[in-house]
Amino acid sequence: MPNQNEEVLLRVEHLCQYFKSTKAVDDISFDIKKGEVFGLVGESGCGKTTTGRSIIKLYDITSGNIYFKGKRIAAGTLSYKEAIKKAREEMKSASPDRQAELKGLIDEQRQLMKEAKHDHKHCDQMYADEIAKEVAAKYEPLLAAAPDAEKPELKKRYLDEMRVAKKQRFITQIQMIFQDPIASLDPRKTVYETIAEGLVIRGEKDKKVIDDKVYSVLETVGLVREHASRYPHEFSGGQRQRIGVARAVVMNPEMIIADEPVSALDVSIQAQVINLLNDLRHQLGLTILFIAHDLSVVKYFSDRIGVMYYGKMVELATSDELFAHPLHPYTQSLLSAIPLPDPLYERQRVRIKYDPLSAHDYSEEKPTLREIAPGHFVSCNTREYEAYLAQMKAKP
Ligand SMILES: Nc1ncnc2c1ncn2[C@@H]1O[C@H](COP(=O)(O)OP(=O)(O)OP(=O)(O)O)[C@@H](O)[C@H]1O
Ligand SMILES: [Mg+2]
């Protein structure tokens, strides 16, 4: 589906998330435009969930930057530390002139690191302060102009709005739907409590407002009001995932990260949940990062697709382009795994296995993500790059 709006909503820049020796996500970059569905695909353990959790700040990321609506919401420090370490090493044997230069470089890296830490820690606070300022700007002139009799009522509204403003967190504009609908729902909470929780945390106290929002979102996701008082175990897998969707949507998010929302469900139910997400996307103008481990699930739903392998992005293109001209051998292997309802094709379908050691020779030059055709990026070194270019030229 062509995307008219080119505004970048989310930008992930050189994201690294390491767990001790595991480089779960290792220097990936991509952006998601407003209104777009971006599919993130790759086998189990390649770092998809870690990417999603890094975006919603469940980790202090190791390195890189994440921007949402132009604001830096997460930043890591490893790249600055490494640059400082390298400069210090070089300092030992550098000429006095070079030493002065290196000192400048170290100071600069220190400053950048300080700014990164500041933004990572305070982005929500800065946002709440902004909203609080807007509320003050709205009410102060009103209060000054109001007749004395109306002042107490106005003052109360002002304080209420201010209380809510101070609790705003920028990051709640991104909501995540989790991989496992059973594990992610608290069995002791009713559906109502589960869905209302985020609103309450955000400072909503008005029972009527909460009721209205909860009941209306239940309908939006295809459940009914009567479901509100029940507990998660009373629902089927598909319904539970609808509760997960409701819990995310009730926060009125701008973006949703759907982490394999259908992989725990029966095939017959999968399409229903995908259709629901697709409807919501249009109805609510949502932007979606859709995580899946196979390409068949994301094919029709995603505008663009990023393919991950062992913490790295190996290919990124529009959905149509990726299916028409898959270049990286890992993408080809994923494609070969998709069954089609065509017996003849199925009999001839050969699964391509991906073995990185025999597929690439990176002994002399390591791969980087390069643009082979407009918007089509592949991880490759110079030799592979030229081969891919030739391959693209030869194709219609
Ligand atoms: N909190 C953690 N502590 C240590 N290692 C972790 C942690 N979370 C993830 N990992 C490791 O990081 C790697 C990436 O995990 P991640 O959950 O992101 O993969 P995934 O692509 O979502 O896989 P799946 O398709 O199975 O959900 C794995 O090797 C995993 O074991
Ligand atoms: Mg996962």
Describe the protein in words.
By secondary structure, the chain is of the alpha/beta class. 47% of the residues lie in helices and 20% in strands. The protein has 14 helices and twelve strands. The chain has helices at 48-55, 78-91, 96-145, 151-167, 191-201, 207-220, 237-249, 267-284, 295-298, 319-324, 329-336, 343-348, 356-359, 382-394; strands at residues 8-19, 22-33, 37-41, 63-68, 71-75, 174-177, 255-259, 287-292, 304-309, 312-318, 368-373, 376-380. The strands form two sheets. It has an eight-stranded mixed sheet with strand order 6-7-8-3-9-10-12-11, sandwiched between helices. Strands 2-1-4-5 form a four-stranded antiparallel sheet. Helix 7 runs parallel beside helix 8. Residues 19, 22, 24, 42, 44-50, 179, 293 line the site of adenosine-5'-triphosphate.
